From TrEMBL:
Family classification: Belongs to the class I-like SAM-binding methyltransferase superfamily. TrmB family.
EC number: 2.1.1.33
EC class of the enzyme, as a word: transferase
Sites where the protein binds substrate: 140, 172, 207-210
Record gene name: trmB
Protein function: Catalyzes the formation of N(7)-methylguanine at position 46 (m7G46) in tRNA.
PANTHER family the UniProt entry points to: 3-DEOXY-D-MANNO-OCTULOSONIC-ACID TRANSFERASE/TRNA GUANINE-N 7 - -METHYLTRANSFERASE, PENTACOTRIPEPTIDE-REPEAT REGION OF PRORP DOMAIN-CONTAINING PROTEIN
Domain of life: Bacteria
Binding-site positions, S-adenosyl-L-methionine: 62, 87, 114, 136
Pathway: tRNA modification; N(7)-methylguanine-tRNA biosynthesis
Top-level taxonomy: Bacteria, Bacillati, Actinomycetota, Actinomycetes, Micromonosporales
Keyword field: Methyltransferase, S-adenosyl-L-methionine, Transferase, tRNA processing
One Pfam family, short name: Methyltransf_4
Any one GO molecular-function label of the UniProt entry: tRNA (guanine(46)-N7)-methyltransferase activity
Protein name, UniProt field: tRNA (guanine-N(7)-)-methyltransferase
Amino acid sequence: MTTTDTATARIRTFHPRRGRMSDRQRDALTRLWPAYGLQIAALDGPCDPTTLFGRRAPLVLEIGSGMGDATAAMAAADRDRHYLAVEVHTPGIANLLELVERHGLDNVRVAEGDALDLVRAMPEGCLDAVHVYFPDPWPKTRHHKRRIIAPAHVALLRSRLAPGGTLHCATDWAEYAESMRETLTADPELVDVHGGYAPRPAHRPVTKFERRALTAGREVFDLIHRRR
């Protein structure tokens, strides 16, 4: 483990979440997890994306896939790339698995646990893109250290991007957006694609969470940076 990896291993960036599942979700989880699921805590050694998917293709890492609707929509429209979604909310994992089956998405896998632990287990340069959409803003100042878009975490994520790969973040918290922008811009190996906040990309579906933010009057900020 490198110095950067050690630094990122110390602080959890998420709340563990279980929640109630419907019978439909429970059934999907039971049936589909063996074929499409990955338990991050059970990893014993490196995680090889080619082995995980059974074939080689550009890989997109989705950190915090929520209920999975956006991941499923992007994967369905982008069949030439693999999508690895990481989530800790069990009903969300189950819902995404159901969507994978419903739409025949053989280019999706779903991981449960700490996304940073998964990234540490992956080879450098293996990712075509990393998506961090609406992560926990940890709004209290004393909790800012838990934010996933922090210098050490960004360095880790960037190290797993292939040259030319993109790190795309989105948030509806203006203060966190500015913190993200400063952190991403400070990384010498990342290039700001739009020179500031990006126009809303067409490939990022509008989720229920985003609609609620817009209804509440909160602006949504996108940031897209590319590895040199």
